[in-house]
Amino acid sequence: MASYEDVMSLSVRRGFLWPAVDLYGGFAGFYDYGHNGVLLRRRWEDRWIETFLGLSDNYYLIDTTTILPEAALKASGHVDHFTDILVTCTRCGESYRGDQLLEAATHEEQEGLTTEEIDARIQELKIRCPNCKGVLGPSREFHMMFPLEVGPTGKDRAYLRPETAQGVFLNFKREFEALRRRLPMGLAIVGRAYRNEISPRQGAYRMREFIQAELQIFFDPATFGDAVPFQDIASVPVRVAWASEKHAPTAHDAPAKDLVGHGLPPWYVYHLVQVQRFYLDLLRIPRDAFRFAELDEKERAFYNKIHFDIQVRQESLGGFKEVGGVHYRTDHDLRGHEAGSHAKQSVTFGTSKLVPHVLELSFGVDRNVWALLDLSYAKGERVVLRLPVQVAPVPVAVFPLVNKDGLPERAEALYAGLRKRIAAFYDDSGSIGRRYARMDEIGTPFSVTVDHETLEGKGVTLRERDSQKQIRVKEGDLATTLNQLLSGEATFPA
Ligand code: GAP
Fold first, then answer.
1. For the whole model, what pTM was predicted?
2. Which residue among 16, 195, 226, 282 has its CA within the 20 to 30 Å range from the CA of 138?
3. Could you say which of 114, 143, 172 is where a domain stops?
């Protein structure tokens, strides 16, 4: 189990991520990634792209601007509705998010409350300023987008995009026409989003600049059910916490078909199963540390008709925390842009002409990186990051046992050959024990050591991170053995 300090200290020590601009005392809500952090993040993104764009041959990756004009964000509803509730201390002036003040006092999630409800709860629970114990002022809506003035006159008002999704909606019609003109069609973006969070905190959990990976699936509600092979997953147990029980610390396993019985469309449940597979099978998140949590009408985002958060239990953040969401956005966004731009968003598909509906699979990349660091952190005599092989920043390390007797030259030659096929890393600094420990801390699953027996033609030592077991492998077989272990085709001999 990892505390917040454990994860942050490992993260800084081993080049994952840390608060930005710390030379100038920090910059709340902004984080920089180091070399291992970028590798881990990119591997997560690659696995995400393979998994979710792999769901259909009509799903594609696009890239769009991070600054959007006010007109587009007015049409999407963000200018009018993208707010959080701000409470300010009347004595020290410290600012808080209303729901977070209540959560700290009650240890329960508090989403979807109005300003009046928050004020009433603050009175009832006698909450004072956590900083100075002063009296808290009345709550108010606080707008979360970062405004910008574009051009020399500053007359063109714009915002940093609060979600990547809007770039997809603005390009839907163009892509539909440029591609196969068929539904369902998916468009994904992996990119930055910006929110002026009132109270950024908990490391990568609540940032002001962060990365989202979002797939918008455009579909015809009359036929989407037939387009997904629901029967293939009907019996798969799905981990859910319904809105009425999401404060409970656990979740149920309910067969997918029971969720349909509960009123969810089969196409929605089918995608819950795909998301769950990504977390449980590919990222190897323990089953009891994963769940979908339903949001009720008051809690869900203004554009959603069905909304389940994807949650992962993280000791460093105090329990189950949202890392993504599965959102049925209906035709809210395309209709909004049609009204705002006066450009028709309907398309003709088969015999129907329609404004497609949208299912959104939305993920916070930084939150997922943090969750992996938290769940992989294992501390015994030393720290080992038990990252799944598919996302480990450095899959293989190569060492000479000692820095003499021709071992470095032999190890470097082996490394030069290996790195043509595998993202290997060479290290000859410090004792072999320290080198293993460094690799364990960044989650490298396999290390190869060239020793004196190698010079006698007796192969190299291959060590596995989690068991610390070692086997000897012939040099000629090494690349194939490693590729099989990394792809999951083979397991390390017990
Ligand atoms: N397009 C839908 C959308 O943006 P959201 O629930 O507001 O929905 C999606 O955000 C995901 O983005 C969240 O589940 C979370 O993982 C991530 N996210 C949102 N705000 C964040 C923040 N301030 N810092 C880090 N990640 C954030």
1. 0.96
2. 195
3. 143
305 and 275 belong to one structural domain: yes
At 276 the pLDDT is 98
Ligand 1 geometric centre to CA of 363 (Å): 7
Domain containing 422 equals 394-487
The residue whose CA has the least distance to atom 18 of ligand 1 is 364
Asked if 102 and 243 sit in the same domain, the reply is no
CA of 246 to the centre of ligand 1 (A): 19
Q: Is the CB of 323 under 6 A from ligand 1?
A: yes
Identify the bridge partners of residue 424 per DSSP, sorted by sequence position: 396
**Is the domain of 302 the same as that of 447?**
no
Q: How far is the CA of 194 from the centre of ligand 1 (A)?
A: 10
Residue numbers in the chain where pLDDT is lower than 70: 246-249
CATH number, position 98 = 3.30.40.230
Among 328, 348, 376, the domain boundary falls at 376
CA 228 to ligand 1 centroid distance, Å: 27
